[in-house]
Write a structure and sequence with these properties.
Order of helices and strands: HEEEEEEEEEHHEEEEEEEEE
Distance between the termini: 58 Å
Number of helices: 3
Radius of gyration: 19 Å
Number of strands: 18
Largest sheet: 10 strands, mixed
Shape: globular
Number of domains: 1
């Protein structure tokens, strides 16, 4: 009986560790994506891997920027507060148009064993880094990583569409749609560009998902030489596109730097 209990305890610890490692993505999820002028909307910053559910809240001290951009407005949102498992901001949208809300989190350090780091690389779309470690003969070495996150969401106010969503916010990494997603519908493809430090990022593994998928993404593909990828809109309702990019920086304080980004919007029916 003692051995059985120890076995269950070990299994629980493994599951808990795996869940902790997987709980990485950060999404901005508005109460509603399409609203009327004058409406006040709560925007939730949710952390997890089962979109859009949140396992924990980002604390306000980790936020370096939380901005809203419209056709003729750029404004910092400062009324942030933790509510249950989410960081929440509220904003009143006075004028019609397309708005992009984005957040930037300060870099944070994480230390992982070799096994934890290798598992994380394969789970989060970073097989190239895994192969690099294998090639360099360091798969058995632990890792110190600094990671930062840059989620965005697109809100449509009224029926007046514009191209605000096709303009980058200037984050270190971001997903930028080539057209306004609200011009498209279920069954269309949304072409996006991935930018890293302002330049197209080729060969990045980009994934997409929607509620009900759990931790399994609906699909993934790599960006082409121009940083482009066509994302199929295969489900109506809230949608997320995400990616992680990592570099081997070999600094005294840490060897790895990763950049996380996501883009949320709503897919409309035909």
């Amino acid at each position: 009986m003692k051995n059985i209990c120890l076995g269950f305890l070990s299994l629980f610890i493994i599951i808990l560790a795996s869940t902790t490692l997987a709980a990485h993505d950060l999404w901005l999820v508005p109460q509603i994506f399409r609203i009327n002028p004058g409406d006040s909307v709560a925007i939730f910053a949710n952390t997890g891997m089962d979109f859009p559910k949140s396992l924990s809240a980002v604390t306000t001290d980790r936020v370096s920027q939380f901005i809203l951009v419209g056709k003729s407005i750029k404004e910092n949102i400062t009324n942030l507060k933790v509510q249950d498992n989410s960081l929440v901001a509220k904003y009143t949208f006075e004028k019609p148009g397309t708005y992009v809300i984005g957040a930037a989190l300060k870099p944070k350090e994480i230390k992982l064993t070799a096994e934890e780091f290798n598992e994380y690389l394969l789970h989060d779309g970073l097989p190239d880094i895994y192969e690099l470690r294998k090639k360099e003969g360091i798969l058995n070495q632990p890792a110190v990583e600094h990671y930062s996150k840059y989620p965005k969401t697109i809100v449509q106010v009224g029926k007046k569409l514009d191209e605000t969503s096709a303009e980058p916010l200037g984050f270190p990494i971001e997903i930028v749609p080539k057209v306004n997603p609200y011009e498209l519908k279920f069954g269309d493809d949304l072409e996006v560009t991935v930018l890293f430090q302002g330049k197209p990022l080729s060969g990045a593994e980009i994934a997409w998902s929607y509620p009900g998928r759990g931790e399994e993404f609906a699909g993934s593909k790599r960006t082409d030489a121009n940083g482009l990828a066509a994302i199929p809109l295969i489900k109506t309702g809230p949608y997320v596109i995400r990616l992680t990019y990592m570099e081997w920086v070999k600094k005294e304080t840490h060897e790895w730097e990763s950049y996380w980004t996501s883009l949320t919007f709503e897919v409309l029916p035909n």
